[in-house]
Structures are given as C-alpha cells and as structure tokens.
C-alpha cells in the first residue's frame, strides 16, 4: 500500500513540474511581436549612379550602323544617362521624437533614405524621409532621424551582457524585401569577433537574411540586445549562423552620434601585440597576460613615459587580458580623461598616468628610432635559425629599407627552425634584442649570451617589417 502511495505522489510531482515548465515557457510569441513590431521599420535607400562616359561602342564614327547601335544602347539602359539604384534594409525607433538605429552599410552612400513603418495603430502610414545624424563604420552603426506628425512608438535597449547562450531571442526586419517578418531562435554564442577592433557580436540561429540588416534582436522582455548585422553563409541565405552587434556596444555609439554627430573614442597611442607563453617567459612575466607594447609613436602614452617592451597589465583600474580587451577599454574611455596605466617593466610593475587623446584625431606617423649603426666591414652571422647582417647602403637598396631604420637585416631563415614557424622572413629587420637596441652582430651575440647566463630559455626580439613592429621570442636552444 505504501509503495502505491509513494508512486502516486511521485507521479503527481512529475505532473506538477511539467505544468510549471509549460507555464514558464510562453505558448506564443505573438504578444511580444504585437508589442515591439510598431517600432521596427523598413529602410529604402536610393542612390544615383552616374552614366558611363567616354567611348562606348566599337562602331566607327560616321558608320551607317552608328545610329542603330546608339538606339540599341539607349533602349537597354546602356546610355550615358544617370541611373537610380535602390536597396532595402531594416531599423528600429529608439525615441518618440524619431531617432532610428540601423546599420551603416544599409545607408552608406545613399542620396535618399525613406522610412516605412509597420502598419500599426498610431504609426505613420506614409513613407517618411530620414536624415543621417551620424555613422560609425567601425561598428557598422548609423543613427537616423525622421520628423513624424505624432510621437512614435519606440523600443529600449537591454543589457546584452546578461544574455546567455541558450536564451530565446527574436529577430525582426525586412528579409529579402518581403516585408515585415519575425524569426525566433536562441543565443548560439557570445563575444564573437569578425573583423573590427570593437566587435562584440551575439551569434544566433534566428533566421537573418539580406534585408534584415539593421533590424533589432529582441530578448523575451522586448528589449533590444543586438543589431542584426551579418550572416555566415556559403550561398547568401540564412543557414542559422547570424551575428548581431551587442547592444552595450551600440548604446555608447548611439549616444555619441546623437551628441556629437560622430564617435569620440579614447586614444592611448601605442602599437601592441598579445603575450603568448614564450613571450611571457622571455620577459619574465608570471603568465601570458596583458598587451605587449611594440612601438610608442608621438602621443599620450609617449608623453606619459610608456616604453616599447612594456606590458600593459591594467588600464583605468581594470585588468588587461589581451590586446582586444585593451583596445575596447581604451576606445570606451572618455577623451581627455587621465587614467592610471600599470605596466610590467624589467621585472616589476610601474604605474603611469596617461591623459587620453581622441582616436579619430590621432595622426599616426612613422617612428624615428635613434641612429645606432654598425661600423663598415662587419661580418654576417648565423644564429637562432637566422642569417643576419648589418644594414648597409647595398642591403637597404636591395631590401627597400629606409635610412631611418637601424638594426640587423635578416638575410635568410632556416625553414626547419622555430624562427620560420614564428613568421620571420628575409627582409625583416631586428632592431632590439632582450629589449635593448642592436646595431651590430656582436651586440646580438652579447644579448644571446646574457639571456643564457640569466637562465632564460628564450630571447625577445623586436622585428620590423614594412615599418610595422612586433615582438618574437626565440628559443635559445636553436
């Protein structure tokens, strides 16, 4: 009897759990769609394409066929008359006074922009012209403005950092020019990076197609957590790999575009690279972390005393994990703000105070290293899988290296060596070894010997290619 009672209780508990789960999951997305769709818009852009100029035909002037071919070209739209090209995209209203967010690539180069609203209560029924308030190609975001006769319905941005893999999301827009459409899916991945320095994409399997660009990605609360921007596809259609720029990135950009008509990102003024395990060991860092400074042109960092070879481990009170993180931290910082930058230098940390410049105004000129040339007649040398030689006029001419660059030219690289695996090639120039300048073969040999005496397993080289610097750690066993 007790066993039967126990089974009955267990069955009832299972039924209650199933009922609770069903109640927690919405039966339909229709209420959400009804609430947010009036704020989603179609965007039509028109661009005037100039007609072709210059000779167009292969028929000689004066030929009896000249009039025939001219008439044929005009009839088929191949004359010299300008043509109008249209494109479609999506966007969403973020304020009742008519501010609209979309992708920069949707409106880039457009001569005319028209906004069509979802057919809903209280929204305009005619097309409204829009003007561009500002754009940011780095995040592919644009801010538009329309003048509407009545206050517009709008949506709010949510906190994209709270989005978790597996959360339900809804995409809305104008896919393939078919009109307003909704698709649903989940957050497939977070913090995706495509090509930009400030990328922070939410990956989703909610269907995103051409025409969805610039449309919103909603969470289940109806807040915008992303701007649909790109898809990964072998055929141009959705295969379930779509990318939306995270709302926490978009909010900062939109605020600056609304206030200034352009972005104003902080600028530190350094060239950097990631720190891998070999570099960390060569520098004496406890683990691979931070951003290694490869060059310091004129700018805020140089004025504050940052040096090439420093590892930036903290910026404005936040630990720096890698170069991508530092770029985003600096870009999000206020222009003109004085921040504390902690660097690891020669076995210890130092705190520097840097007043940030504005990235958009920065002029990045080539650095001018101090001269430290080698005496004529120095011999070439093979070590660490490299054949190196002092830069002379002949080598500068052969390798197209400027007079302002001093160091040792790499003449050849053993293809079986670690140096080859790490990308060193003939024509590269070694300007520093062990974080000290080298201008002769003997100086390089000295740096190798000092590193071995100090018990280091690798030697840190600063190498320039086409003027661009990067650090490479080579194993001293080579």
Number of helices: 11
Instruction: Tell me the helix content.
Output: 10-25%
Taken as a percent bin, the fraction of beta residues is: 25-35%
Main beta sheet: 7 strands, antiparallel
Shape by Cα distribution: globular
Plain-language structure description:
This protein is α+β, with helices and mostly antiparallel strands and 478 residues long. Helices cover 22% and strands 33% of the residues. The protein is built from eleven helices and 27 strands. The strands form five sheets. Strands 21, 22, 23, 24, 25, 26 and 27 form a seven-stranded antiparallel sheet that branches. The longest helix has 23 residues, at 2-24.
Task: Provide a brief overview of the structure.
The protein is α+β, with helices and mostly antiparallel strands and 478 residues long. The protein has helices spanning 2-24, 30-36, 66-75, 104-107, 247-260, 277-283, 300-304, 323-332, 393-399, 418-421, 441-453; strands at 40-49, 83-93, 99-103, 112-117, 128-136, 141-146, 168-173, 181-192, 201-204, 216-218, 224-231, 242-246, 266-267, 271-274, 291-295, 311-315, 318-319, 338-345, 348-355, 357-358, 381-383, 386-390, 408-413, 429-433, 436-437, 458-465, 468-475. Strands 21, 22, 23, 24, 25, 26 and 27 form a seven-stranded antiparallel β-sheet that branches.
What is the topological layout?
Blueprint (H helix, E strand, L loop, with lengths): L1 H23 L5 H7 L3 E10 L16 H10 L7 E11 L5 E5 H4 L4 E6 L10 E9 L4 E6 L21 E6 L7 E12 L8 E4 L11 E3 L5 E8 L10 E5 H14 L5 E2 L3 E4 L2 H7 L7 E5 L4 H5 L6 E5 L2 E2 L3 H10 L5 E8 L2 E8 L1 E2 L22 E3 L2 E5 L2 H7 L8 E6 L4 H4 L7 E5 L2 E2 L3 H13 L4 E8 L2 E8 L3
Antiparallel strand pairs: 1-2, 1-4, 2-3, 3-6, 4-5, 5-6, 7-8, 7-10, 8-9, 9-12, 10-11, 11-12, 13-20, 14-15, 15-16, 16-17, 16-18, 18-19, 21-22, 22-23, 23-24, 24-25, 24-26, 26-27
């Amino acid at each position: 009897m007790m066993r039967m009672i126990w089974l009955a209780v267990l069955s009832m508990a299972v039924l209650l759990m199933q009922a609770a789960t069903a109640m927690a999951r919405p039966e339909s997305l229709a209420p959400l769609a009804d609430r947010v769709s009036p704020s989603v818009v179609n965007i039509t852009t028109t661009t005037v394409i100039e007609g072709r100029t210059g000779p167009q035909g292969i028929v000689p002037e004066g030929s009896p066929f000249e009039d025939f071919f001219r008439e044929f070209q005009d009839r088929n739209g191949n004359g010299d008359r300008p043509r109008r090209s249209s494109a479609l995209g999506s966007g969403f209203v973020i304020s009742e006074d008519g501010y609209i967010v979309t992708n920069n690539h949707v409106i880039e180069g457009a001569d005319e922009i028209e906004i069509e609203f979802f057919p809903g209560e209280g929204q305009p029924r005619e097309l409204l012209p829009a003007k561009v308030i500002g754009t940011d190609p780095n995040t592919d975001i644009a801010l538009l403005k329309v003048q509407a006769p009545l206050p517009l319905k709008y949506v709010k941005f949510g906190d994209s950092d709270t989005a978790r893999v597996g959360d339900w999301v809804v995409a809305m827009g104008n896919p393939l020019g078919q009109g307003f459409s909704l698709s649903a899916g989940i957050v497939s991945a977070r913090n995706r990076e495509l090509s930009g320095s400030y990328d922070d994409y939410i990956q989703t399997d909610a269907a995103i197609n051409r025409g969805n660009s610039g449309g919103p990605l909603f969470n289940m609360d109806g807040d915008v957590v992303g701007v649909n921007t790109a898809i990964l596809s072998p055929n141009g259609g959705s295969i379930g790999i779509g990318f939306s720029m995270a709302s926490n990135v978009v909010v900062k950009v939109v605020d600056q575009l609304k206030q200034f008509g352009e972005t104003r990102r902080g600028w530190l003024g350094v060239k950097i690279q990631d720190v891998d395990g070999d570099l960390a060991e060569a520098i004496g860092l406890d683990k691979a972390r931070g951003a290694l400074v490869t060059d310091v042109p004129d700018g805020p960092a140089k004025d504050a005393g940052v040096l090439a070879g420093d590892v930036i481990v903290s910026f404005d009170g936040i630990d720096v994990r890698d170069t991508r993180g530092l770029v985003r931290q600096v870009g999000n910082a206020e222009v003109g703000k004085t921040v504390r930058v902690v660097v690891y230098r020669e076995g210890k940390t130092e705190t520097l105070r840097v007043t940030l410049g504005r990235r958009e105004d920065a002029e990045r000129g080539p650095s001018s290293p101090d001269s430290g040339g080698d005496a004529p007649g120095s011999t070439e040398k093979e070590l660490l899988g490299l054949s190196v030689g002092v830069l002379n006029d002949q080598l500068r001419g052969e390798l197209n290296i400027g007079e302002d660059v001093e160091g040792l030219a790499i003449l050849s690289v053993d293809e079986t060596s670690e140096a080859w695996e790490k990308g060193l090639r003939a024509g590269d120039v070694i300007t520093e070894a062990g974080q000290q300048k080298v201008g002769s073969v003997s100086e390089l040999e000295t740096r190798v010997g000092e590193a071995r005496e100090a018990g280091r397993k690798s030697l840190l080289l600063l190498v320039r290619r086409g003027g661009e610097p990067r650090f490479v750690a080579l194993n001293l066993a080579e």
